[in-house]
Write a structure and sequence with these properties.
Shape: globular
Strand content: 35-45%
Structural class: alpha+beta
Number of strands: 7
Largest sheet: 7 strands, antiparallel
Helix content: 25-40%
CATH architecture of one domain: 2-Layer Sandwich
Distance between the termini: 37 Å
Radius of gyration: 15 Å
């Protein structure tokens, strides 16, 4: 079982952080393991939107599709695998703080198709990767390069 949550303070307005992070076109810029993203549904991101991602994890290339199952702009985004190697749910939440925005990134799921050992190693690996990704997001947004 994977149940990992990480958070970071980003010194930018909550709306800017949420808008950038929720845009799947930006995912390859701040997720180290994600190499490409492709929107599968037209129009603005909303509940029901689907996005195909290509990532590298545990030395393997993974292709998976996420469906947006909950979206409150500026507050919360929940995506669930609609197709992929194992069921996973990713949740972003954003909260206003005195010094910017607190972003929380959570991943929950039940690996299948992986060995038992890989399943045991996944939570610490995901925790390390998401911490690194959030720090990269923080660097991009605080530098203003993305805006």
């Amino acid at each position: 079982m994977v149940d990992v949550e990480t958070e970071i303070l980003i010194r930018r307005p909550r709306e800017e952080v949420a808008e950038y992070a929720a845009n799947p076109d930006n995912a390859p810029k701040w997720y180290d393991n994600i190499h490409s993203s492709q929107r599968l549904t037209a129009g603005p991101i909303d509940v029901g939107s689907k996005v195909a991602f290509t990532a590298r994890f545990l030395g393997r290339e993974l292709n998976y599709t996420y469906e947006f199952v909950e979206y409150v702009p500026g507050e919360k985004l929940v995506m669930r695998t609609a197709q992929g190697p194992f069921p996973m749910q990713t949740t972003y939440t954003w909260a206003e703080t005195g010094g910017g925005a607190r972003m929380t990134l959570g991943n929950t799921g039940q690996p299948s198709g992986f060995s038992r050992l890989a399943g045991l190693l996944m939570p610490p690996m995901i925790r390390r990767a998401t911490r690194k990704d959030l720090h990269k997001l923080k660097s991009i947004l605080e530098a203003g390069a993305a805006l």
